[in-house]
Amino acid sequence: MTPTHLPGRVAIPALPEQTRTPPSPNLLDAFNTASAEDAHHLLLSCLRSLRWARRVADHRPYPDLESLQAASDEAAYDLSPSDLSEALAGETLPTLPDGTYGAAHMALDAAHAAYEAKFGHAFVICLDGLSKGEALDHVLAGIRSRLTNDPEEERVVAAEELRRLAKGRLVDVLRGAGNCATSHNAPAPGTQQNHPPQ
Known about the structure:
UraD-like
């Protein structure tokens, strides 16, 4: 039985809330005292919106991680349509776990092609809190479900996914770890890329 799409309800699978070990205070202190250029560069690795990065950087120093995450959320909620388009342009498909079978890649490529044709940007989804084994099914279910959204509904969902990704990536960056939820192969807005994408 195919799920029905109810008017006014955005189709998106339920996502677990993230749980992470907070960064040490000295990493937050380093972010608070970094140059504006360094802070912008770090923030653009979390969300590819110049306006978002400037807003978050300009409100430093942050007394704790919760304050930084709240500022990240507030700035993400205030993204204009052009800011959102800029951020979405910097996203790529979620990275699948190593060892994922070829048919899954084909299914994901086909689903993403349909999504991109309909919405004009990459599919974004936050995978925080999911095991590597659950990631593929969650991405495929999410992309298929969200294909039922109209473009305006999908922009709302994509904006929420970007907000969640940015929040999680901030924690990961301040911990010195990478987030595998999506990959960033494109250069950050306003920067030049000195080497080809990996």
